[in-house]
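hey so i finally got around to running the thing on that chain from the lab meeting. sorry it took forever, my laptop kept dying and i had to restart like 3 times. anyway pasting the input first so we r on the same page abt which one it is
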Amino acid sequence: MTDRPRPRLVYERWTDPVAGEILGQADVDIIKLDLAAADEFGWAQLSSAHGYQVATRTDIADHPDGDQWLAGAALVQRCENLLAVCSAGAGYDVIDVEACTQAGIAVCNNSGPGAEAVAEHALGFMLDLAKNITVADRALRGGPVADRMALRGSQLFGKTLGVVGLGAIGGRLVQLCAPFRMQVLAYDPYIDDATARSRGATPVPLEELVERSDFVQVTCPLTDETRGLFGHEQFAAMKTSAFFITTARGPVHDESALCAALVDGAIAGAGLDVFHQEPLSPDNPLLSLDNVVATPHTAGITVEAAHDIAVATATQWLTIFDGGVPPRLLNPDVWPRYCERFSDILGFRPDATTALQKEGKPS
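ok and heres what got predicted. didnt touch it at all, straight out
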């Protein structure tokens, strides 16, 4: 027998039920946050939580004061027992990393498992835009197509791809584009030149990337540094034949500047999976443009990705509560303070040399 408190994990939803199945076999209390319930009920659940699988912006979009359930400074202050927070996918803009670090809370994401799905989606956008697939489909559904040459597209073969953010998703996209023999440029200030080249890309400044690329693919996280990274200046510098594609987060680009560039013909088209407002309003002017292909933040939503993210999510929480280092820890500077709080709250000290070897699919 042990007198150690039983870890308590609050979550809003899993991407796949397998996460609950894995965690259900562990010595952890799993509590579902009911966003439809009274606020007092949710705060009562979170006040005793040691871990929080943070709700997404889509989860809270239809709820009054929904932002209170994101891991911001106010939530951190109210949840004194909180040791770790994790986002559902690679993006972590639902978490105030600085506030968590100051409070001694570990911040994690789930980058990696969904990379294949998002990279394939980005490639799909590239093919759709270049070949005018959606434009042709719309024309065909409107009646007989009298002039097929008006739907003439272009090829990916031999073109230049500019990737903004060369992490798991960007790196995989480069691999997927290899058969097209594209020249690949990359802008990522957090990846050194040697690593960029090892991933098949030539590192260049952002200014050069937007000027030279036929396809600009944005796959970086939303941070203070990347917010508003693409605006009027960047769109004006792109080729008039170039396409802008993003699977990142909406605020990385200026929507009004993008819309103006598309209307004025400054760029040829755009493939958009993310927007400033989500769910997207049907009267958003971008949806009225024929040179826009849009999806509702579904790039990472596939059967396989949902399962793999859920497994990674569950095994990361098992590692956390077992006292190991989270495999996708975003604020490593928090470790000393985190260890002290962990020991005070759960009764034993984490060990940086200990981690569960449970990553990957269960047998």
